[in-house]
Amino acid sequence: MGIFTWIILGGLAGWLASMLTKNNDKMGLIKNIIVGILGAVIGGKVFEFFGTTGVTGFNLWSIFVASVGAVILLVIINLFTRR
Length: 83
Prior knowledge:
Blueprint: H1 3-20, H2 29-49, H3 60-81
């Protein structure tokens, strides 16, 4: 995937994850993209660990995998930043 595709996928996955974890009011576009791209990496590794495919391109499966990874990342971040 090209850099533009990673940015689009990351933005979408980060936005979905921020909505699911109720962080959307705290995150802007850039943070959504960063969380989504990191989530795609995390989600890909987690799914591969369990024997399924990770991110395969710009498709619904990849958005799902990236969103799951982004949710995992945001939950971990929230554990350390919540008071």
